[in-house]
Amino acid sequence: MEIISYVKTVAREGEQLADIAERAGTDALVPTCPQWHVADLLRHTGSVHRWATGYVAQGLTERAPFPDAPELVGAELLAWFREGHATLVRTLSGTSADAHCWTFLPTAPPSPLAFWARRQAHETTVHRMDAEAALDVPFGAVDPAFAEDGVDELLTGFHARPQSRVRTAEPRVLRVRASDTGAVWTVHLSQEPARTVRGDADGAEADCTLTGEASWLYSALWNRQPLAGPGVTGDAELARLWVDTAGI
Predict the structure, then answer these.
(1) Cα–Cα nearest to 5, from 75, 133, 67, 92
(2) Which of 88, 110, 226, 227 has the most CB within a 10 Å radius?
(3) In what helix (H) or strand (E) does residue 55 lie, and over which residues does it extend?
(4) Which pLDDT tens digit goes with each residue over 77-107?
(5) Is 167 helix (H, G, I), strand (E, B) or coil?
(6) 168, 189 in Cβ contact below 8 A?
(7) Which segments of the chain does DSSP mark as H helices, in order?
(8) Which residues are registered as beta bridge partners of 178?
(9) What is the C-alpha to C-alpha distance for residues 20 and 130, in angstroms, rounded to an integer?
(10) Is 225 exposed, middle or buried (0-12, 13-18, 19+ CB in 10 A)?
């Protein structure tokens, strides 16, 4: 995806998140993030937006402290969130594609700006789903190509890091298939961080296969809806392992 597409997604999803959060109310519980209220969701996402903005705007080349969110409530908290989101969008839109700054995933795009635009597009979309869960409405549509991209970031990026807790005592293989886009990932699990290969040509036999539209895989692998049902075949224990250990 092009950087401009990611930036447009950040803009749209952040506006939707704020609007839905306002309708739900900042005291509403967020079922997809146990122990959180909508106020916590806004503080977290608003801080992430400011954290990302700092790297891009200031060209920071080392990891910076995560900013604290103010103890605002109600309309003031929503205004704080919207201000930080708008600043992020302006920064991503107005920065040169060859700018340099720190990034943190092993499969980050070669352009740091592309990395942060992509990361914030998915960060904001997933948390828009959390706001919808708080309002108790169905998740809004996610474009299949964007959902595929988000699954790829999660599998090849986040869970390739040492911090990933998705481990198995013995080697196991999880295969993920997007039925609408045709994308396939083969996830090799062991006592080490997961090793994900795009496609299924490595000859590995899957112990468990997850099959569904990219948008379902996106929300389920990010643990925003159950990773269960007819799309899970083979050893369902691996799907349960994911639910229990894959939280970011």
Answers:
(1) 92
(2) 88
(3) helix 38-58
(4) 999 999 999 999 999 999 999 999 999 998 8
(5) coil
(6) yes
(7) 3-24, 38-58, 74-94, 112-135, 144-152, 214-221, 236-245
(8) 212
(9) 10
(10) middle
pLDDT in tens, 119-166: 999 999 999 999 999 999 999 999 999 999 999 999 999 999 999 999
Query: In whole angstroms, what is the distance from residue 131 CA to residue 114 CA?
Result: 26
Report the alpha-carbon distance of residue 114 to residue 95 in Å, rounded: 11
- The sheet carrying 232-234 orders its strands as 195-198, 184-189, 172-178, 208-212, 232-234
> Which tokens belong to 196?
């994900």
Task: Provide the token pair at 156.
Answer: 């090849």
When computed from its CA atoms, the radius of gyration of the chain, rounded to whole angstroms, is: 18
Contacts of 159 (CB under 8 A, 6+ apart): 166, 187, 193, 194, 196, 246
Q: Which amino acid is at 180?
A: D
Of 199, 213, 224, 54, the residue nearest 125 (C-alpha)? 224
d(CA 142, CA 2): 17
- What is the token pair recorded at 235? 């050893």
Which of 202, 215, 217, 210 has its CA nearest to residue 235?
Answer: 210
Structure tokens at 72: 């605002």
Q: Quick one: which H or E segment has residue 188?
A: strand 184-189
Distance CA 126, CA 245 (A): 18
Q: Checking DSSP bridges between strand 208-212 and strand 172-178, what pairing results, if any?
A: parallel
